Amino acid sequence: MLEDRRVKIFLLTLVIALTAGIGIKAFVGLKASPVPAPATQEPVQAAQNQEIVVYVTGAVSKPGLVKLPAGARLADALLAVGQTAESDLNNLNLAEKLKDAQKIMVPRLGEQQAANSSTGTSTPNPGSSPSPKSGGKVNINTADAKELDTLPGIGPAMAERIIAYRSEKGPFQRPEDLKDVSGIGDKKYADMADLITVD
């Protein structure tokens, strides 16, 4: 009887010890389990809120400054200013990415695109030569200094003054507006009136 009792006590103690050991091991393992760190989110940059400003002139409905989102294409600028029946888009790369402060000259039908500002511009097809004349007349909105220099009374200095005025004030609305340029009076304008156009 005594032996049976000792065996039972021994077995009971062994079971308790084993149970306690398994529980402690499980508890320690649970505490040791790494807690996954919460996922971090990088701040979203507001690139889409950035804007560029370009100057569109030439054969468009509303020439002037246009605000566009960064990464805009030439087609976006033309959509903003509107084309006219005279707009010649054949020599423009409508997929061109625009830059801030860029000047875009849209030529009229029958014209090749003239040289634009150094801040970046749409360029004509390679091998094409600029021709700002329309119907035998010099287009004072698109002519470069060399073309303007061919007009009577206009030398290199005056040609640069016309281009500077055009860049600052925008395209001439009518040929007579050329008299607003310093140094061009009624007499000088009369000498070239039949040779110039804004079309």
CATH-derived architecture of the largest domain:
Roll
Low-confidence stretches: 41-48, 113-134
Query: Radius of gyration over alpha carbons?
Result: 39 Å
* Main structural class: alpha/beta
Whole-Å distance between the termini? 126 Å
Helix content: 25-40%
CATH topology of the largest domain: Outer membrane lipoprotein wza fold like
Strand order, main sheet: write it out: 2-1-3
Question: Rough shape?
Answer: rod-shaped
CATH class of the largest domain: Alpha Beta
Order of helices and strands: HEEHEEEHHHE
Total separate domains: 2
Number of E-type strands:
6
Fraction of residues in β-strands: 5-15%
Write down the overall mean pLDDT.
75
Instruction: Please give the count of helices.
Output: 5
Largest sheet: 3 strands, mixed
List keywords for this structure.
single chain, 199 residues, alpha/beta, Outer membrane lipoprotein wza fold like, DNA polymerase, domain 1, 2 domains, three-stranded mixed beta sheet, 5 helices, rod-shaped
